[in-house]
Design goal:
globular, 14 helices, binds glycyl-adenosine-5'-phosphate, 447 residues, single chain
Length: 447
């Protein structure tokens, strides 16, 4: 089992992920993806899109604006209920999410329940708490020409929120898609994009961020078929996580969320938990959102959200099943799944055993020696051949060959191709395998 510090350190050392705006001291809960992180993140997002959207006839894509009319969040319930329990230590003034500093309590914990647990402040060690207050996690901003000294009413009138979930960008476009594509139920609308949450305590590297990327599907179904569709989508999530992404099946655990802990819109939720290096944490959620969102939008907008059955002519508001996954949480699951330490020739080796379809580079090409022009020239020729075929191919002529292998192992490159003096004679190259470290000779024509 890997440990989180090792993964954080590898991410920084090899250019996967850097702390957000680190040069100015950083900003809690934000992270920047470096050159290798971008490739892996994009591959994860593309795999999801290909699996859930492009390869299916019942899915449509959406890319909605992040800034949405504030009535969106009134209808969705986020203005009134998207809040975490905040508690302040009266001694040192530190603020915490109450359900994260004590075991066995839920997000709906009351002040009295919390006080009865006799929790000590994680910062100063004292036990002197203020009341539990609900803290709304939406980031607000102002739209248009609003100045800081404008009156409160104008400020309030122009307030807007950075979306806390991508889902609402889908719901507000349900009717547009219905009126332009006339899909038959069941069908899904999928979206990938940024979501923002003013988390009280961002933590655990990229697991709980203030800015994250979500991949969500709202799957619209006939109300009396929700259970069977829930099962279909539940199995699809396993198929995607285990077969497309290669996560270990025994590291994925389903957790049936009890009613008191479910989001305000859900009648059933299964959290897919993953064995992260720092413990079991939520990777993604599958929720039955009923007609909660569409009915609230109908009420708030005055527009009908009804669907007319093409065969029976019956009209009703569809119900919704929602699989929702955070890209960063998937990214960390993939890295911790792949992170391995072993020993090669008596030396510790770090190797990322990423599946070939996710590795940032599929091949690394090197000349055995960089000061031999004839080797470099031949290696460049081989590099071009592979690059044309596989795109994600890297070139490395730094250090000695052992160091190059270690570097490529750490970033998960499955194969290293080396051009040596024999290549000039027999036009074959050495291919070295990342996981076994075994080497074979292959003619260039068979690459
Ligand atoms: N639309 C439903 C929804 O947003 P959620 O359980 O709040 O439900 C869905 O979030 C997923 O988004 C989570 O399972 C997680 O993968 C990801 N996510 C949520 N908050 C996050 C955060 N602060 N940082 C990173 N990922 C987050």
């Amino acid at each position: 089992m890997s440990n989180l510090e090792d993964i954080v350190s590898l991410c920084k050392r090899r250019g996967f992920i850097f702390p957000g705006s680190e040069i100015y001291g950083g900003m809690a809960g934000t992270w920047d993806f470096g050159p290798l992180g971008v490739i892996l993140k994009k591959k994860l997002m593309d795999s999801w899109w290909s699996f859930f959207v492009e390869s299916r006839d019942d899915m449509y894509g959406i890319d909605a604006a992040i800034l949405m009319n504030p009535r969106t969040w009134v209808a969705s319930g986020h203005t009134s209920t998207f809040a975490d329990p905040l508690v302040e230590c009266k001694e040192c003034k530190s603020r915490f999410r109450a359900d994260k500093i004590a075991d066995g309590i839920s997000e709906s914990v009351t002040s009295e329940e919390f006080l009865n647990l006799h929790v000590k402040c994680p910062v100063c060690g004292k036990e002197n708490w203020g009341p539990i207050r609900k803290f709304n996690m939406m980031f607000s901003t102002h739209i248009g020409a609003v100045l800081p000294d404008d009156d409160a009413e104008l400020m309030e009138k122009n307030v807007a929120y950075l979306r806390p979930e991508t889902a609402q960008g889908i719901f507000v476009n349900y009717k547009n898609v219905l009126d332009t594509f006339y899909p038959s139920l069941p069908f899904g609308l999928a979206q990938q994009g940024k979501a923002f949450r003013n988390e009280i305590s961002p933590r655990d590297f990229i697991l709980r961020d203030r800015e994250c990327s979500q991949m969500e599907i709202e799957y619209f179904v006939k109300p009396d078929t929700w259970e069977e569709n829930f099962e279909v989508l539940r199995n699809l999530q396993h198929d995607f996580l285990e077969n497309m992404i290669g996560l270990r099946a025994d590291f994925i655990h389903e957790y049936e969320v009890p009613a008191e802990d479910r989001a305000h819109y859900s009648k059933r939720t299964i959290d897919f938990m993953f064995d992260y290096p720092n413990g079991l944490e939520e990777l993604m959620g599958l929720a039955y959102r009923t007609d909660f969102d569409l009915s609230n939008i109908a009420r708030e907008s005055g527009k009908s959200m009804e669907y007319r059955d093409k065969v029976t002519g019956e009209t009703f508001v569809p119900h919704v099943i929602e699989p929702s996954i955070g890209v960063e949480r998937l990214f960390l699951a993939v890295l911790s799944n792949a992170y391995t330490e072993d020993e090669v020739n008596g030396e510790k080796r770090v190797v990322l055993k990423l599946p070939e379809n996710l590795a940032p580079y599929r091949f690394c090409v090197s000349p055995l020696l960089k000061n031999k022009p004839e080797l470099v020239e031949k290696a460049k020729e081989v590099y071009q051949i592979l690059r044309e075929k596989y795109k994600n191919v890297t070139w490395d002529d730094s250090g000695n060959i052992g160091k190059r292998y270690r570097k490529q192992d750490e970033i998960g490159t499955p194969k290293c191709v080396v051009i040596d003096f024999d290549t000039l004679e027999d036009n074959s190259v050495t291919i070295r395998d990342r996981d076994t470290t075994k080497q074979i000779r292959v003619p260039v024509s068979e690459l």
